[in-house]
Specification:
The chain is mainly alpha-helical. It is built from 18 helices and no strands. InterPro entries: MFS, MFS_dom, MFS_trans_sf, Sugar_transporter_CS, Tet-R_TetA/multi-R_MdtG-like.
Length: 421
C-alpha cells in the first residue's frame, strides 16, 4: 500500500499516445453511457405494461429494486474489475465488459418475464463496473498535473450520453418498447469491436500487481482508502457528495411534478438543459481552467456551488426559479475531475485500478442508501402537519455539501502542513 502524497504514478514505457488514448476512452464511455441512457425512458414502462398489467404502484416498487440491484452489483464487482485490471491490464477488462454489456442488452430485449429482466439488470451492473477501469486507464496515460482536465473530458462523455441517450431512446420507444434495447445492444457491440482493433494497453508489465482476493472484494478494496489519512478523507468527501447527488435521480421527477405540475415534456427539456450545461462545463470550462485553478480550488467551487444550487432548488416557488439555479449548480462539474486528480496522486501506478474500484464501491454505497433516504424525506416533507415542505430532500443534500466542505478543509490543511514539514 502506498503512503506517499502527490507522488506521480510511474509512466509506462509502452504508454500509448496520451491524446489518442484519452479520446478513445472518451468514445468508449460516451457510447456505453449513451446505451444506458437509451433504456431510461422505456424500462419503467416496459416493466409496468408487459409484466405487471399496468399496476403503477407495483411498478414503482420494482423500478426502485432495479436501481438498488444495479448499485449493489457496482459495489460488489467494481473492486474485482479494478484488481483484475491491475494484474492483466486495462484492455482485456474494458473489452470483455463492452462485449458483455452488449450481450446483456440482447438478453433484456428478449426477456420473457420480469425474472429474466432482473437477471439482465444485474449483469448490466456487473459489466458497467468497467467504468472504474476506464478511470484507471486515464490515470495510466495522463501525467498527474493533467489528470483533472482528462477526467473532465470523461465527465463530458457522461453528460452527452445522458442528453442524447434518453432522447433517442424515447423516440425509438414510440415504435416498440424493446427497440431501444436492441439499438443499445448494437451500439455497444460495435464499440467493443472498435476497441478490439484500436485500443492499446496502458499498463506496463512492470507496473502490474498480483491479483489478490483481499483487494478484489469490496471490503478489501476499501482498505486501500485507509492506507493514507488524506486518501481516506478525500474518499469521505466523495461518498458524501455522491450521496447528496442521489436526490436528483430519485426525487427530481416527483418534486417537479408535485410542486410545478411539470409534464414529461418539460421534465425532459430540463434534463436536456442540465446535460448540455454539464457537457459545456466538463468538456470546455474544466479543460481550460483546471491548470490555473488547481484541484483544491476546483473541489471547493464544486461543493459550494452545489450546496447553493440544492438550496435554491428546495426554495424555488416557481419552475422559473428552479431553472435559474441550473447555471449555478453546473459548477459541480468541477468535482469529479478535482477529486479524481487528488486521489490518483496518492496511490502508485500498480494501485490505480484498485483505487477506481474502491471509488465505485463508494458510489454503489451511495446508490443503495440514497433512494430510500431521499424518497422518505420527500414523503415526510409533503405530509408535514405543520406545513408542506417539498424541498426538504434538497435541503438535506445542501447540508451534506456543507459537511463535505468541512471535511475537505481539514484534509487540505493537513496536506499543506505535511508538504511544509
Amino acid at each position: 500500500m502506498s503512503s506517499h502524497t502527490d507522488t506521480p504514478a510511474t509512466t509506462p514505457a509502452n504508454q500509448p499516445p496520451r491524446r489518442a488514448a484519452v479520446i478513445f476512452i472518451f468514445i468508449t464511455v460516451l457510447l456505453d453511457v449513451l446505451s444506458l441512457g437509451l433504456i431510461i425512458p422505456v424500462l419503467p414502462t416496459m416493466i409496468k405494461e408487459e409484466f405487471l398489467q399496468n399496476d403503477l404502484a407495483l411498478a414503482a416498487v420494482y423500478v426502485g429494486w432495479f436501481g438498488t440491484l444495479w448499485a449493489l452489483m457496482q459495489f460488489l464487482f467494481s473492486p474485482l474489475m479494478g484488481a483484475i485490471s491491475d494484474q492483466f491490464g486495462r484492455r482485456p477488462v474494458i473489452l470483455i465488459s463492452c462485449f458483455g454489456l452488449g450481450l446483456d442488452y440482447v438478453l433484456m430485449a428478449v426477456a420473457p418475464n420480469i425474472v429474466w429482466l432482473f437477471v439482465g439488470r444485474a449483469l448490466s451492473g456487473i459489466m458497467a463496473a468497467s467504468f472504474s477501469t476506464a478511470g484507471a486507464y486515464i490515470a495510466d496515460v495522463t501525467p498527474p498535473e493533467k489528470r483533472a482536465a482528462s477526467f473532465g473530458l470523461i465527465g463530458a462523455a457522461w453528460g452527452i450520453g445522458f442528453v442524447v441517450g434518453p432522447a433517442v431512446g424515447g423516440g425509438l420507444g414510440e415504435y416498440g418498447l424493446r427497440l431501444p434495447l436492441w439499438f443499445a445492444a448494437g451500439l455497444t457491440l460495435l464499440n467493443a469491436l472498435y476497441g478490439y482493433f484500436i485500443l492499446p494497453e496502458s499498463l506496463a508489465v512492470e507496473n502490474r500487481s498480483k491479483f489478490s482476493w483481499k483487494k478484489a472484494n469490496p471490503l478489501g478494496a476499501l482498505k486501500l482508502l485507509r492506507s493514507h489519512a488524506e486518501l481516506l478523507g478525500l474518499a469521505s468527501v466523495l461518498l458524501i457528495y455522491q450521496l447528496a447527488h442521489q436526490v436528483l435521480s430519485n426525487v427530481f421527477v416527483l418534486y417537479t411534478e408535485h410542486r410545478y405540475a411539470w409534464t414529461p415534456k418539460t421534465i425532459g427539456l430540463t434534463l436536456t438543459v442540465v446535460g448540455i450545461m454539464s457537457v459545456v462545463m466538463q468538456g470546455f470550462v474544466v479543460r481550460r481552467t483546471a491548470a490555473k485553478l488547481g484541484e483544491w480550488r476546483m473541489l471547493f467551487i464544486a461543493l459550494i456551488c452545489g450546496g447553493i444550487g440544492y438550496s435554491i432548488y428546495g426554495l424555488a416557488a416557481t419552475g422559473g426559479m428552479f431553472w435559474a439555479a441550473i447555471p449555478v449548480f453546473a459548477f459541480v462539474g468541477y468535482f469529479s475531475p478535482a477529486i479524481q486528480g487528488l486521489m490518483t496522486r496518492r496511490v502508485n501506478a500498480s494501485e490505480q485500478g484498485q483505487l477506481q474500484g474502491a471509488n465505485s464501491c463508494l458510489m454503489g454505497i451511495a446508490g443503495m442508501l440514497g433512494p430510500v433516504m431521499f424518497t422518505n424525506v420527500f414523503s415526510k416533507g409533503i405530509q408535514n402537519p405543520i406545513g408542506e415542505l417539498p424541498g426538504a430532500p434538497f435541503f438535506l443534500a445542501a447540508g451534506l455539501h456543507v459537511t463535505a466542505i468541512v471535511v475537505a478543509l481539514v484534509i487540505m490543511r493537513r496536506s499543506r502542513k505535511m508538504a511544509e514539514a
